Amino acid sequence: MGSIPGPKTKSALIKAFLIELNKQYNKKLVVDGKWGPKTRAAIVTVKKGAKGNLTWILQGALFTEGYSPESLDSIFGKGTETALANQKARDISVDRKAGKATFTELVTG
Asked: Is 25 left (phi over 0), alpha (psi -120 to 50) or beta?
């Protein structure tokens, strides 16, 4: 049986997210595993067609919250888009993209 994602899983997702924001966008964030105002302000929107580690992290966050993007393949395709359609359940505007509200809800929710 698998385990339920907890604080260490969330912290690891946040660290990976911070590393990628620093690497790809030179955001100069402290990689501390904490979700703060600087992290939230640095978020970039990930949308269909995106490929790479931010998409992979998004897919992992969706899985940990019980929404299946179908695979962890680092490609924002139909499965990831469908999983994001669940934004409505979290009172997030359903735009099938992952921006500030979506990432914040997935990582801190």
From this structure: alpha
Cβ atoms 63, 84 nearer than 8 A: no
Residue 70, SS3? coil
Write the pLDDT tens digit of every residue in 33-50: 999 999 999 999 999 999
Average pLDDT rounded to a whole number, residues 73-86: 93
Residue type at 51 in one-letter notation: K
Tell me which residue has tokens 């499965």: 79
Mean pLDDT over 65-88 rounds to 91
Half-sphere exposure of residue 49, counting CA atoms within 13 Å on the CB side? 0
* DSSP 3-state of 98: strand
